[in-house]
Amino acid sequence: MGDKRLTPARSDLAAAHLKGVVDAPRYAEGEKFSVRIGRASLRVRPSDDAAQDSELLFGETFTVYDSAQGWAWGQAANDLYVGYLRQDALAKPFKTEARVSALMAPVFAAADLKTPVRDLLPLGAAVPVLARDGDYVDVGPGFVHRQHLAAETQKDFVAIAERFLGVPYVWGGKAAAGLDCSGLIQTALQAVGKAAPRDTDMIEKALGDAVPVSGVCRGDLVFWKGHMGVMLDEKRLLHANAFHMAVAIEPLAEAIARIAKAAGPVTSVKRL
Predict the structure, then answer these.
(1) Whole-model pTM?
(2) How far apart are CA 204 and CA 267, in angstroms?
């Protein structure tokens, strides 16, 4: 059936395009929606107590194959991850024209920084431009300051990743409110226009060319079983990790020695 994380198929239902590939009692055509809140948890089961596999950000597209009891089951267009979102996080599809460049962009009730903040949109969130009012852009649920929207695509994904230094480690997260090791790298790469899978093993398989760990340089991705980080230079590793419970900078040699005790040796180094 392929990777279950990326295959919209359950024991009782599968996406219609999988007919003939996956056996299921019934098949469903998907319906596309847009995420209407800053961050929406993608969960393994339809429950707020279920583990968070990932997050979808404002403006991302989610194809829904089934809905029940306030939950939608489907697949993210961005990285093809499958899971459950709360239905109230979704809206009819809307066109996006700009992206958030701030780590978190407040959504004001009006074009005035003294008005209530209705939401916080993470870096990389895609927004519509419905109107402009002075220094503010109407994005639908409120107004975002133009300084928090990207004027042009950034180029240095390592510099973007480093902006998250000190952000707490959160499993499945991919925003300044908390993120995990692969979420950090995926978010930074997407900010420079480079698509990346969601999980560490997927990124290791899909991106870059292998180089020896003895010759690492800035921008190289270092992988362990279940973990990854990016080199800031020839010696320092930036990674979201559960040891520091934060995005931290650590000498690569120290990280290798420490991580080896729990996850084994470095499995590869990839250069983009």
Answers:
(1) 0.96
(2) 9
